[in-house]
Amino acid sequence: MKGSEWLRYRLSELSRLEGYTKPEKLQKSQPQPQSILRMDTNENLALPLEFVRDVLHEVLEDVDPRLYPEEYDELRSGVASYLGLSKDNIVIGSGSDQLIDLALVAFGYGRRSITLKPTFTFYRDRCLLHGIDIEELALDDHDFSFSVDSMLKSNADILYICSPNNPTGNQFSRDIMLDVIDGFDGLIMVDEAYAEFAGYSLKDLAVNRDNLIIFRTFSKAFGLAGARVGYAIACKEMIDVFNRVIQYPYAVSSISLKAAISLLKRFEKVKRVIEDLKAEREWLYGQLSMMLGLRAFRSDANFILFDVDEHEDVYRRLRDEEGILVRRIGQVGCYRGCLRVTVGSRDMDERFLYGLSRAICNK
Ligand code: PMP
Q1: Between the N and C ends of the chain, which has fewer C-beta atoms within 10 Å?
Q2: Count of CB atoms within 10 A of residue 140's CB?
Q3: Distance (Å) from CA 97 to ligand 1 centroid
Q4: Total domain count, the chain
Q5: How far does residue 134's CA lie from ligand 1's centre (Å)?
Q6: Is the beta carbon of 96 within 6 A of some atom in ligand 1?
């Protein structure tokens, strides 16, 4: 191509990609009930705002924003002791999405990838952006499991599995994951963004394998989505390359690094809220399961997927008449109209259930 033709070509190629669909913003013109309840993005809203704000105030007293961040290694050590691993197995990122993306940038060029469908859509978006071929293996139509044989038959070089899976909420069994990890000959990326709410983690496995990276985050259980802090766990060699070569010199602000360090020190409080949320999830699942015209799915994360008749109408009524935002997912397997709701405090969940029953009755 001549001159800057290549640039115009590439730009039009990129403009055809969809990119990640961010959560909906309420329009100013929409009638806004006094308080909008955001139950669409799986943050931890059960963690009291005053508690997290106190942490931030303390951090602000202690930070000199004129300087480049110096707390990177301290957070690596904090995460390592939280997980019972060594700091040499930890890399910190600006959210786990940045680390997933960096792994694709570093290892994905000219490679093929396989993942499940549906799963966290960001992964597919980034593969498309980086020109990585992506194969999507459909989850079982009814129970959201997958066939290890079909996955291993693929000749992909990179495998991405989100476990617990977003948006279905199920964690694949440890045995299934071990079969995949033992059988796959390539880079294995396991996204454990919701691990704190789940039954187990594969963190210990990543340390001794040279082809396994596990991604985790402070955005969900720790209530720090706005601070953008995530991390990955892998063998020493992989982490060394990540820290020296792949990661930006200063990817995370000192305020965010310090906030994460401080929250780890107060983990007892965070842990109590996680335990409460797990109990709340079971309660909410029970309540949803009793509603007519709706089918809820068990979850190992802090959200619940449910299938409801005329889901578009229900979604809109929830938003416009009840002031409650949930995530619109659509068809998943044989379930035609799925929505996903984040588990909150009992007050939030009761308001959601009441709003949902009204939205269903008024259809
Ligand atoms: N993985 C999954 C499965 C997620 O649902 C999300 C957030 N929606 C992320 C990763 C990204 O989280 P972070 O805020 O750490 O970038």
Answers
A1: N
A2: 11
A3: 6
A4: 2
A5: 19
A6: yes
- Dump pLDDT digits (tens) for 94-136: 999 999 999 999 999 999 999 999 999 999 999 999 999 999 9
- What CATH number has the domain bearing residue 12? 3.90.1150.10
**Sign of the CA dihedral with 195 first, then 140, 329, and 38 last:** negative
For residue range 46-65, list pLDDT tens digits in order: 999 999 999 999 999 999 99
Atom of ligand 1 nearest to the CA of 217: 15
What is the sign of the dihedral through the CA atoms of 17, 121, 45 and 312? Answer: positive
304 and 220 in a single domain? The answer is: no
Which distant-in-sequence residues (6+ apart) come within 8 Å of 4 by Cβ?
Answer: none
Residue type at 299 in one-letter notation: S
Parallel/antiparallel/unpaired status of strands 294-296 and 212-217: unpaired
Q: Which protein residue has the closest C-alpha to ligand 1 atom 4?
A: 193
Here the tokens at position 334 are 């044989």
Domain range spanning residue 13?
Answer: 5-47+268-362
Residue 64 β-bridge partners: none
Which two structure tokens, joined as six digits, stand for 323? 């002031």
Nearest residue by C-alpha to atom 6 in ligand 1: 193
Q: Ligand 1: distance of its center to the CA of 92 in Å? A: 14
Residue 125 beta carbon below 6 angstroms from any ligand 1 atom: no
CB of 193 shorter than 6 A to ligand 1: yes
CA–CA distance, 132 with 101 (Å, rounded to integer) = 12
Q: Is the domain of 155 the same as that of 253?
A: yes
Helix (H) or strand (E) holding 95: helix 95-107
Q: Whose CA is nearest to atom 2 of ligand 1?
A: 193
Secondary structure (DSSP) of 18-33: ----PPPPPPTTS---
